[in-house]
Amino acid sequence: MTAINTPPLFVPGRMEQMSTRVAFFIAGFGIAAWAPLVPYAKARAGLDEGTLGLLLLCLGVGSILAMPMAGILATRFGCRKVATGGTLLICAALPLLATVSSIPALIGALFMFGAGLGTVDSTVNLQAVIVERASGKNMMSGFHGLFSLGGIVGAAGVSALLGLGLSPLGAMLVVVALLLVALLKAVPHMLPYGSDSSGPAFAVPHGIVLFIGGMCFIVFLAEGAALDWSAVFLAQERGIDTAYAGLGYAAFALTMTVGRLTGDKIVRRLGATRVIVFGGLTAAAGLFLATFAPSWEAALAGYALLGAGCSNIVPVLYTAVGKQTVMPESIAVPAITTLGYAGILAGPAVIGFVAHAASLSFAFGLMALLLVAVAIGGKVLKV
Known about the structure:
Blueprint: E1 2-3, H1 14-34, H2 38-45, H3 49-77, H4 79-97, H5 103-135, H6 140-163, H7 168-186, E2 199-200, H8 207-237, H9 247-261, H10 263-270, H11 272-292, H12 296-310, H13 313-323, H14 329-357, H15 360-381
Helix pairs in contact: 1-4, 1-5, 1-6, 1-7, 3-4, 3-5, 3-14, 4-5, 4-7, 5-13, 5-14, 6-7, 6-9, 6-13, 8-9, 8-12, 8-13, 8-14, 8-15, 9-12, 10-11, 11-12, 11-15, 14-15
Protein backbone atom coordinates (compact mmCIF):
# COMPACT_ATOMS: atom_id res chain seq x y z
CA MET A 1 0.00 0.00 0.00
CA THR A 2 1.61 3.24 -1.10
CA ALA A 3 0.82 6.72 0.12
CA ILE A 4 0.71 9.34 -2.62
CA ASN A 5 2.20 12.65 -1.51
CA THR A 6 1.56 15.95 -3.22
CA PRO A 7 4.79 17.98 -3.32
CA PRO A 8 4.73 20.86 -0.83
CA LEU A 9 3.40 24.08 -2.32
CA PHE A 10 5.66 26.20 -0.15
CA VAL A 11 8.80 25.92 1.96
CA PRO A 12 8.14 26.26 5.71
CA GLY A 13 9.25 29.62 7.05
CA ARG A 14 9.12 31.71 10.22
CA MET A 15 5.36 31.37 10.75
CA GLU A 16 5.59 27.58 10.43
CA GLN A 17 8.41 27.63 12.97
CA MET A 18 6.21 29.64 15.35
CA SER A 19 3.29 27.24 14.91
CA THR A 20 5.61 24.30 15.66
CA ARG A 21 6.70 25.90 18.93
CA VAL A 22 3.09 26.53 19.94
CA ALA A 23 2.16 22.94 19.04
CA PHE A 24 4.96 21.57 21.25
CA PHE A 25 3.74 23.79 24.09
CA ILE A 26 0.23 22.38 23.59
CA ALA A 27 1.56 18.81 23.85
CA GLY A 28 3.49 19.50 27.07
CA PHE A 29 0.72 21.59 28.62
CA GLY A 30 -1.94 19.01 27.82
CA ILE A 31 -0.18 16.01 29.35
CA ALA A 32 0.91 17.92 32.46
CA ALA A 33 -2.63 19.15 33.16
CA TRP A 34 -3.63 15.58 33.97
CA ALA A 35 -1.03 14.99 36.70
CA PRO A 36 -2.73 17.08 39.45
CA LEU A 37 -6.05 15.35 38.67
CA VAL A 38 -4.79 11.85 39.49
CA PRO A 39 -5.49 11.99 43.27
CA TYR A 40 -8.99 13.36 42.59
CA ALA A 41 -9.76 10.59 40.11
CA LYS A 42 -8.41 7.97 42.54
CA ALA A 43 -10.61 9.24 45.38
CA ARG A 44 -13.70 9.75 43.21
CA ALA A 45 -13.60 6.20 41.86
CA GLY A 46 -12.44 4.64 45.14
CA LEU A 47 -9.37 3.06 43.56
CA ASP A 48 -6.45 1.41 45.32
CA GLU A 49 -2.89 1.93 44.06
CA GLY A 50 -2.81 -1.31 42.09
CA THR A 51 -6.04 -0.63 40.24
CA LEU A 52 -4.97 2.95 39.54
CA GLY A 53 -1.69 1.71 38.08
CA LEU A 54 -3.53 -0.65 35.74
CA LEU A 55 -5.91 2.13 34.67
CA LEU A 56 -3.03 4.47 33.90
CA LEU A 57 -1.73 1.88 31.45
CA CYS A 58 -4.77 2.73 29.30
CA LEU A 59 -3.27 6.17 28.74
CA GLY A 60 -0.01 4.65 27.54
CA VAL A 61 -1.75 2.06 25.36
CA GLY A 62 -3.84 4.79 23.71
CA SER A 63 -0.71 6.84 22.99
CA ILE A 64 1.36 3.98 21.60
CA LEU A 65 -1.46 2.80 19.32
CA ALA A 66 -2.10 6.35 18.06
CA MET A 67 1.51 7.30 17.25
CA PRO A 68 2.13 5.15 14.15
CA MET A 69 -1.42 5.83 12.96
CA ALA A 70 -0.75 9.57 13.25
CA GLY A 71 2.17 9.24 10.84
CA ILE A 72 0.00 7.46 8.29
CA LEU A 73 -2.80 10.03 8.63
CA ALA A 74 -0.37 12.97 8.46
CA THR A 75 1.01 11.64 5.19
CA ARG A 76 -2.49 11.51 3.71
CA PHE A 77 -4.15 14.55 5.30
CA GLY A 78 -1.29 16.76 6.52
CA CYS A 79 0.10 17.69 9.94
CA ARG A 80 -2.43 20.52 10.35
CA LYS A 81 -5.54 18.33 10.30
CA VAL A 82 -4.06 15.49 12.33
CA ALA A 83 -2.59 17.71 15.08
CA THR A 84 -5.90 19.58 15.27
CA GLY A 85 -7.80 16.32 15.67
CA GLY A 86 -5.42 15.16 18.40
CA THR A 87 -5.73 18.43 20.31
CA LEU A 88 -9.53 18.26 20.15
CA LEU A 89 -9.39 14.71 21.55
CA ILE A 90 -7.34 16.03 24.49
CA CYS A 91 -9.85 18.84 25.01
CA ALA A 92 -12.73 16.35 25.01
CA ALA A 93 -11.01 13.93 27.40
CA LEU A 94 -9.85 16.35 30.13
CA PRO A 95 -13.35 17.36 31.40
CA LEU A 96 -14.28 13.66 31.45
CA LEU A 97 -11.19 12.84 33.51
CA ALA A 98 -12.25 15.56 35.95
CA THR A 99 -15.76 14.18 36.45
CA VAL A 100 -16.26 10.48 35.66
CA SER A 101 -16.22 8.06 38.57
CA SER A 102 -16.87 4.60 37.13
CA ILE A 103 -13.97 2.39 36.08
CA PRO A 104 -15.28 1.76 32.52
CA ALA A 105 -15.73 5.52 31.99
CA LEU A 106 -12.22 6.20 33.30
CA ILE A 107 -10.80 3.55 30.98
CA GLY A 108 -12.49 5.18 28.00
CA ALA A 109 -11.46 8.70 28.99
CA LEU A 110 -7.83 7.70 29.63
CA PHE A 111 -7.63 5.84 26.33
CA MET A 112 -9.07 8.88 24.52
CA PHE A 113 -6.65 11.19 26.33
CA GLY A 114 -3.69 8.95 25.51
CA ALA A 115 -4.73 8.71 21.85
CA GLY A 116 -4.94 12.50 21.64
CA LEU A 117 -1.55 12.96 23.29
CA GLY A 118 0.09 10.33 21.08
CA THR A 119 -1.39 11.88 17.96
CA VAL A 120 -0.23 15.39 18.81
CA ASP A 121 3.21 14.28 20.02
CA SER A 122 3.92 12.21 16.92
CA THR A 123 2.58 14.82 14.48
CA VAL A 124 4.37 17.83 15.95
CA ASN A 125 7.67 15.93 15.91
CA LEU A 126 7.06 15.09 12.26
CA GLN A 127 6.35 18.75 11.48
CA ALA A 128 9.44 19.76 13.49
CA VAL A 129 11.68 17.52 11.39
CA ILE A 130 10.34 19.03 8.13
CA VAL A 131 10.45 22.63 9.40
CA GLU A 132 13.97 22.32 10.84
CA ARG A 133 15.30 20.75 7.64
CA ALA A 134 13.77 23.53 5.55
CA SER A 135 15.33 26.21 7.78
CA GLY A 136 18.84 24.82 7.50
CA LYS A 137 19.35 25.63 11.19
CA ASN A 138 19.39 23.72 14.47
CA MET A 139 15.91 24.23 15.95
CA MET A 140 14.87 20.90 17.44
CA SER A 141 16.11 21.51 21.00
CA GLY A 142 14.13 24.75 21.16
CA PHE A 143 11.01 22.96 19.93
CA HIS A 144 11.36 20.30 22.63
CA GLY A 145 12.11 23.02 25.16
CA LEU A 146 8.61 24.41 24.57
CA PHE A 147 7.22 20.95 25.38
CA SER A 148 9.12 20.95 28.69
CA LEU A 149 8.03 24.52 29.42
CA GLY A 150 4.42 23.59 28.66
CA GLY A 151 4.73 20.72 31.13
CA ILE A 152 5.94 22.99 33.91
CA VAL A 153 3.26 25.61 33.21
CA GLY A 154 0.53 22.97 32.96
CA ALA A 155 1.34 21.16 36.20
CA ALA A 156 1.96 24.35 38.19
CA GLY A 157 -1.02 26.18 36.69
CA VAL A 158 -3.55 23.43 37.35
CA SER A 159 -2.19 22.92 40.87
CA ALA A 160 -2.59 26.67 41.49
CA LEU A 161 -6.17 26.66 40.19
CA LEU A 162 -7.08 23.72 42.41
CA GLY A 163 -5.32 25.39 45.33
CA LEU A 164 -7.44 28.51 44.82
CA GLY A 165 -10.56 26.41 45.30
CA LEU A 166 -11.60 25.67 41.72
CA SER A 167 -13.17 22.28 41.19
CA PRO A 168 -11.35 19.77 38.99
CA LEU A 169 -13.94 20.38 36.26
CA GLY A 170 -13.52 24.15 36.55
CA ALA A 171 -9.75 23.83 36.31
CA MET A 172 -10.05 21.61 33.23
CA LEU A 173 -12.41 24.03 31.52
CA VAL A 174 -9.77 26.74 31.96
CA VAL A 175 -7.15 24.37 30.52
CA VAL A 176 -9.38 23.49 27.55
CA ALA A 177 -9.98 27.17 26.84
CA LEU A 178 -6.23 27.86 26.84
CA LEU A 179 -5.55 24.84 24.62
CA LEU A 180 -8.14 26.02 22.09
CA VAL A 181 -6.66 29.54 22.05
CA ALA A 182 -3.19 28.07 21.45
CA LEU A 183 -4.56 25.78 18.74
CA LEU A 184 -6.21 28.72 16.94
CA LYS A 185 -2.84 30.48 17.05
CA ALA A 186 -0.98 27.51 15.60
CA VAL A 187 -3.42 26.02 13.08
CA PRO A 188 -3.13 28.59 10.24
CA HIS A 189 0.58 27.86 9.87
CA MET A 190 0.68 24.12 10.57
CA LEU A 191 1.88 22.16 7.55
CA PRO A 192 -0.91 21.03 5.20
CA TYR A 193 1.22 18.02 4.26
CA GLY A 194 3.00 15.39 6.35
CA SER A 195 6.01 14.22 4.39
CA ASP A 196 8.53 15.52 1.89
CA SER A 197 8.84 12.08 0.32
CA SER A 198 6.65 9.20 -0.74
CA GLY A 199 6.86 5.69 0.61
CA PRO A 200 4.87 2.87 2.18
CA ALA A 201 2.14 3.78 4.64
CA PHE A 202 3.63 1.45 7.25
CA ALA A 203 6.93 -0.38 7.77
CA VAL A 204 8.73 -1.99 10.68
CA PRO A 205 11.60 0.26 11.90
CA HIS A 206 14.96 -1.04 10.71
CA GLY A 207 18.55 0.00 10.12
CA ILE A 208 19.61 3.37 11.47
CA VAL A 209 16.02 4.22 12.47
CA LEU A 210 15.90 1.23 14.82
CA PHE A 211 19.35 2.18 16.20
CA ILE A 212 18.19 5.77 16.86
CA GLY A 213 14.95 4.47 18.37
CA GLY A 214 16.91 2.27 20.76
CA MET A 215 18.93 5.27 21.93
CA CYS A 216 15.71 7.26 22.42
CA PHE A 217 14.30 4.34 24.40
CA ILE A 218 17.22 4.43 26.85
CA VAL A 219 17.08 8.21 27.36
CA PHE A 220 13.33 8.10 27.96
CA LEU A 221 13.88 5.09 30.23
CA ALA A 222 16.11 7.33 32.36
CA GLU A 223 13.48 10.07 32.31
CA GLY A 224 10.79 7.63 33.46
CA ALA A 225 13.09 6.40 36.22
CA ALA A 226 13.69 9.96 37.44
CA LEU A 227 9.97 10.77 37.29
CA ASP A 228 8.73 7.78 39.27
CA TRP A 229 11.66 6.62 41.42
CA SER A 230 13.75 9.65 42.38
CA ALA A 231 11.39 10.63 45.21
CA VAL A 232 11.25 7.04 46.49
CA PHE A 233 15.05 6.81 46.41
CA LEU A 234 15.60 10.10 48.24
CA ALA A 235 13.08 9.21 50.95
CA GLN A 236 14.09 5.58 51.32
CA GLU A 237 17.86 5.72 50.86
CA ARG A 238 18.78 9.28 51.86
CA GLY A 239 16.19 9.88 54.58
CA ILE A 240 14.80 13.09 53.12
CA ASP A 241 11.33 14.09 54.33
CA THR A 242 8.67 12.83 51.92
CA ALA A 243 7.34 16.38 51.56
CA TYR A 244 10.63 17.35 49.90
CA ALA A 245 11.37 14.10 48.05
CA GLY A 246 9.99 15.58 44.83
CA LEU A 247 12.95 17.98 44.69
CA GLY A 248 14.94 15.34 42.83
CA TYR A 249 12.60 15.34 39.85
CA ALA A 250 12.22 19.13 40.11
CA ALA A 251 16.01 19.51 39.72
CA PHE A 252 15.95 17.11 36.77
CA ALA A 253 13.03 18.89 35.05
CA LEU A 254 14.54 22.36 35.57
CA THR A 255 17.90 21.57 33.99
CA MET A 256 16.17 19.58 31.24
CA THR A 257 14.02 22.60 30.34
CA VAL A 258 16.86 25.13 30.51
CA GLY A 259 19.13 22.80 28.55
CA ARG A 260 16.58 22.46 25.75
CA LEU A 261 15.71 26.15 25.57
CA THR A 262 19.41 26.95 25.12
CA GLY A 263 20.20 23.73 23.26
CA ASP A 264 20.17 24.96 19.67
CA LYS A 265 23.16 27.20 20.36
CA ILE A 266 24.91 24.35 22.15
CA VAL A 267 24.34 22.00 19.20
CA ARG A 268 25.64 24.60 16.75
CA ARG A 269 28.75 25.15 18.85
CA LEU A 270 29.62 21.55 19.77
CA GLY A 271 28.06 19.56 16.93
CA ALA A 272 25.47 16.82 17.20
CA THR A 273 27.91 13.96 17.87
CA ARG A 274 29.55 15.74 20.81
CA VAL A 275 26.15 16.64 22.25
CA ILE A 276 25.19 12.95 22.34
CA VAL A 277 28.58 11.79 23.64
CA PHE A 278 29.02 14.49 26.30
CA GLY A 279 25.32 14.43 27.13
CA GLY A 280 25.29 10.68 27.68
CA LEU A 281 28.43 10.81 29.85
CA THR A 282 27.10 13.79 31.85
CA ALA A 283 23.78 12.05 32.41
CA ALA A 284 25.53 8.84 33.47
CA ALA A 285 27.82 10.74 35.86
CA GLY A 286 24.81 12.57 37.31
CA LEU A 287 22.91 9.34 37.93
CA PHE A 288 26.00 7.75 39.52
CA LEU A 289 26.37 10.82 41.77
CA ALA A 290 22.68 10.79 42.72
CA THR A 291 22.84 7.08 43.51
CA PHE A 292 26.14 6.64 45.33
CA ALA A 293 26.90 10.02 46.96
CA PRO A 294 26.07 9.80 50.68
CA SER A 295 24.19 13.11 51.06
CA TRP A 296 20.83 14.15 49.65
CA GLU A 297 22.30 17.50 48.57
CA ALA A 298 24.76 15.68 46.29
CA ALA A 299 21.89 13.52 45.02
CA LEU A 300 19.97 16.64 43.98
CA ALA A 301 23.06 17.86 42.11
CA GLY A 302 23.22 14.46 40.44
CA TYR A 303 19.61 14.64 39.24
CA ALA A 304 20.30 18.14 37.91
CA LEU A 305 23.25 16.75 35.92
CA LEU A 306 21.06 13.92 34.67
CA GLY A 307 18.53 16.42 33.31
CA ALA A 308 21.21 18.59 31.73
CA GLY A 309 22.87 15.61 30.08
CA CYS A 310 19.65 14.14 28.71
CA SER A 311 18.17 17.46 27.60
CA ASN A 312 19.49 17.65 24.04
CA ILE A 313 20.13 14.02 23.15
CA VAL A 314 16.59 13.25 21.96
CA PRO A 315 16.22 16.49 19.92
CA VAL A 316 19.51 15.71 18.14
CA LEU A 317 18.29 12.17 17.43
CA TYR A 318 15.09 13.55 15.87
CA THR A 319 17.24 15.76 13.64
CA ALA A 320 19.23 12.67 12.64
CA VAL A 321 16.00 10.89 11.68
CA GLY A 322 15.17 13.78 9.38
CA LYS A 323 18.50 13.33 7.59
CA GLN A 324 18.43 9.54 7.10
CA THR A 325 17.15 8.06 3.84
CA VAL A 326 16.42 4.48 4.93
CA MET A 327 12.78 5.22 5.78
CA PRO A 328 10.40 8.14 5.04
CA GLU A 329 10.16 10.53 8.00
CA SER A 330 6.38 9.98 8.14
CA ILE A 331 7.16 6.43 9.32
CA ALA A 332 10.51 6.96 11.04
CA VAL A 333 9.45 9.85 13.30
CA PRO A 334 6.37 8.07 14.75
CA ALA A 335 8.51 4.95 15.16
CA ILE A 336 11.13 6.57 17.36
CA THR A 337 8.43 8.56 19.20
CA THR A 338 6.67 5.29 20.00
CA LEU A 339 9.91 3.64 21.16
CA GLY A 340 10.71 6.65 23.33
CA TYR A 341 7.27 6.69 24.91
CA ALA A 342 7.56 2.96 25.55
CA GLY A 343 10.75 3.79 27.47
CA ILE A 344 8.91 6.22 29.73
CA LEU A 345 6.23 3.60 30.38
CA ALA A 346 8.66 0.73 30.85
CA GLY A 347 11.19 2.68 32.93
CA PRO A 348 9.36 2.59 36.28
CA ALA A 349 8.46 -1.10 35.89
CA VAL A 350 11.98 -2.13 34.85
CA ILE A 351 13.54 -0.19 37.74
CA GLY A 352 11.00 -1.78 40.10
CA PHE A 353 11.75 -5.34 38.96
CA VAL A 354 15.52 -4.86 39.18
CA ALA A 355 15.22 -3.13 42.56
CA HIS A 356 13.12 -6.01 43.87
CA ALA A 357 15.68 -8.55 42.66
CA ALA A 358 18.74 -6.59 43.83
CA SER A 359 18.40 -3.00 45.12
CA LEU A 360 17.30 0.42 43.97
CA SER A 361 20.93 1.58 43.91
CA PHE A 362 21.87 -1.35 41.67
CA ALA A 363 18.97 -0.54 39.32
CA PHE A 364 20.06 3.10 39.01
CA GLY A 365 23.68 2.03 38.49
CA LEU A 366 22.56 -0.22 35.63
CA MET A 367 20.60 2.69 34.15
CA ALA A 368 23.75 4.84 34.29
CA LEU A 369 25.66 2.19 32.32
CA LEU A 370 22.96 2.26 29.64
CA LEU A 371 23.47 6.03 29.37
CA VAL A 372 27.19 5.39 28.80
CA ALA A 373 26.08 3.08 25.98
CA VAL A 374 24.11 6.01 24.51
CA ALA A 375 27.30 8.09 24.54
CA ILE A 376 29.13 5.31 22.69
CA GLY A 377 26.19 5.05 20.29
CA GLY A 378 26.55 8.76 19.52
CA LYS A 379 30.13 8.15 18.43
CA VAL A 380 29.02 5.26 16.23
CA LEU A 381 26.07 7.20 14.77
CA LYS A 382 28.23 10.16 13.60
CA VAL A 383 25.32 12.57 13.09
